Amino acid sequence: MPGILLDTLRGFVAEKRPVWLMRQAGRYLPEYRALRAEKGGFLPLVYDSKAASEITLQPIRRFGFDGAILFSDILIVPHALGQDLQFLAGEGPHLSPRLVDAALSSLQPAPQHFEPVWETVRLTRAALPAGVTMLGFIGSPWTVATYMVAGEGSKDHHVARAMAYRDPEAFREIIDAIVESSITYLSGQIDAGAEAVQLFDSWAGSLAPKQFQRWVVEPTARIVFAIRERHPDVPIIGFPKGSGAKLPAYVRETGVDAVGVDETVDPRWIHRELPQDMPVQGNLDPLLLISGGPQLEDAARDVLDAFRGRPHVFNLGHGIDKSTPIAHVERLLDIVRGEG
Predict the structure, then answer these.
(1) pTM for this structure?
(2) Which partner from 90, 103, 139, 251 sits 20 to 30 angstroms from 262, CA to CA?
């Protein structure tokens, strides 16, 4: 039986707002920290299907969210394409060889890295309470490419942006490889039990308009088209963080079923600009969830009010921070579930 989140992503206006939070399974939870201390580093957790399923389920048990987002990482695709992937303490992810220095053709694909993630989806879907939607995800091609080219994250993604201008054909090869691998990976998640999926384009906001069209909109549209051909009933959420005024065009041209909006977007503006039946997800500032108090409560009510009358999934403008107090999450849920 579909839950309230799945119904909303299909365009129904529910009596109550469904709610889940990006990065809801993670370091702000003591049960996650305990399991990570027992099991070791981040990547071994991702590839331990039983542990990853347990982490995916932890926030469902504690908070009763309407969706369970797969515990994994957007860089599984580069790992499967043949780059070495490490998560170094205090430094974040590192990929080698960097594709600014090495040819894509030099990589030896390793698609077996998808298998444990698919098993995580299977295990989690089987264990979820009735009505809780299983959410899969990928990183969108532009965001994944920024890591593959530079070998690590950066503030302005200048290495990838410069390569896309300097050698667009080589950059197109990288994007094409990510698109094809992402389709396989995401389709496998759906076959394993994902009921809806999200495309995270966390660094979409760093591109100029023509580059945004070329490296965000067009590759995303290809993934959406392929997934819809294979799985026509599975809603696809696009989340092009930082895209601002380009959001309406992104929605029209990619064909996503729902759009996630970050905290920099005026919710009333996006409510006016998008078709009334278009599901929207967002967009509380994650920093408000850290600060708590009246500001959190007022902002949460404002988001609820701004999207009243349209299909709306309450969420943050990006991922929940590791320092977020659990009591603040509980207070947020009281407000959302009580509609103010």
Answers:
(1) 0.96
(2) 90
295 within domain boundaries: no
Single out the residue of 99, 227, 106 nearest to residue 162, CA to CA: 99
Nearest Cα to Cα of residue 192 among 119, 96, 127, 268: 119
Q: Which residue has 């026509």 as its token pair?
A: 232
Of residues 209, 215, 284, the one with CA closest to residue 243? 209
Question: Which tokens in the block code for residue 215?
Answer: 């490296």
Q: Which tokens go with 17?
A: 């707002």
Within a domain: 298: no
* Percent of the chain as helix, strand, coil, to the nearest 5: 55, 15, 35
* pLDDT tens-digit map of 95-144: 999 999 999 999 999 999 999 999 999 999 999 999 999 999 999 999 99
pLDDT in tens, 159-177: 999 999 999 999 999 999 9
Catalytic residues: 23, 27, 36, 73, 147
Q: How confident is the model over 58-89, as pLDDT tens digits?
A: 999 999 999 999 999 999 999 999 999 998 77
Question: What CATH number did the domain enclosing 131 receive?
Answer: 3.20.20.210
Beta bridge partners of 94: 86
Task: With a cut of 90, say whether residue 154 has pLDDT above it.
Answer: no
Identify the domain containing residue 209 by its residue range.
4-284+307-313
Domain count for the chain: 1
Residue 114 lies in a domain: yes
